[in-house]
Amino acid sequence: MPQTSRVVPGLLPEAGVSSRPLRRRNLLALPALLSLGLLPGQVPTQGADAKSGHPLGLPAVVAPQDNPQTPAKISLGKQLYFDRRLSADNTVSCADCHNPSKGFSNGEQFATGIKGQKGGRNSPTVLNAAYQTFQFWDGRAGSLEQQALGPIANPIEMGLPLPEMEKRLNAIPGYKAQFKEVFGVSEIRASEVAKAIASYERTVLSGNSPYDHFQQGEVEAMSEQAREGMKLFFGKANCAACHAGPNFTDNAFHNIGIGMDKPEPDVGREAISKLEGDRGSFKTPTVRDVAKSAPYMHDGSLKTLAEVVEHYDKGGHDNPWLDEELFPLKLTAAEKAALVRFLEEGLTSPSTQDHAPPKLP
């Protein structure tokens, strides 16, 4: 059998340690499974206090001890996130591939970098990345700080070497003054750039959805069809086996068969863990606001949520590394429609946060 092992949530596994979790589906999905009786308010919703500063249904965001959140740092990070001067030819910013108006993805099958170069993977949403244990589809970064600089330096994304990025930013008086205020540094360094961008990304949150209000006892927050879809999500359709918890993800990696029929499939997590058991496995994305971030899957191959449901209904694409949680669901047409309705209606949040492009220095 392919070698696999356990992962400790919150720690980035070294090579040779699989990130495939121990099977604990029932534990991960327990809060949602308890609500199958559709008794409103039966399960306490985290983040229900409006004074808590985070949306209904979500836990508090925990920042690293060496990078506490401050308003000035978040503002600085937002400017950097939208600034195309962080790319080699001044044409691409973080926001171009992770656009607020497109569910913090880019609405295309693949990411597009400088000179129109196309990557081989879909742009993952930044929504609720603050709660993700791993960043990138293959989990090669263990924090938002580790993730932030990767696309800037990547030659087919933003293509700007980090020393050149530092030189550019140090030549902009407005940034120099802000970095001095926020970090107390006279010279802008890549490490502080990463901290600032990560701080802004921790404010990109999706909660307060109709599902969250339903969990608080507002029965009419979701339509009858969406409520039927919710029961399927946590029951017959088995979605909660992986899409569990407040952020609807187990923070783990799974092979669901996408792309495994290609002559040279993307090996995914295996490239990081170096274990055959992780071949074709990719990070479980949140399905909060999933209706806003089409197309879907790591390769952007599924254009609609209806196609996603069809893929799971047939049990994925069979291959030697297919996750054990996948099997034919035999959903009816009405059940498929209800499941899509829950995803589109129940988990879509109102756009109440300000993520408009800021004025740049």
Number of helix segments?
Answer: 14
Summarize model confidence as the mean pLDDT: 88
Low-confidence spans: pLDDT under 50, at least 5 residues? 1-51
* Overall SS class: mainly alpha
Which quaternary structure do these chains form?
Answer: single chain
Biggest sheet: strands, sense, closure? 2 strands, antiparallel
Approximately what portion of the residues adopt beta-strand conformation? under 5%
Name the CATH homologous superfamily of the largest domain.
Cytochrome c-like domain
- As laid out across the biggest beta sheet, the strand order is 1-2
User: Class of the largest domain in CATH?
Assistant: Mainly Alpha
Shape: globular
Distance between the termini: 56 Å
Question: Share of helix among residues?
Answer: 25-40%
Helix and strand string, N-terminal first? HHHHHHHHHHHEHEHH
Q: Kindly report the CATH topology of the largest domain.
A: Cytochrome Bc1 Complex, Chain D, domain 2
CATH architecture group name of the largest domain = Orthogonal Bundle
Number of strands: 2
How many whole angstroms does the radius of gyration measure? Answer: 21 Å
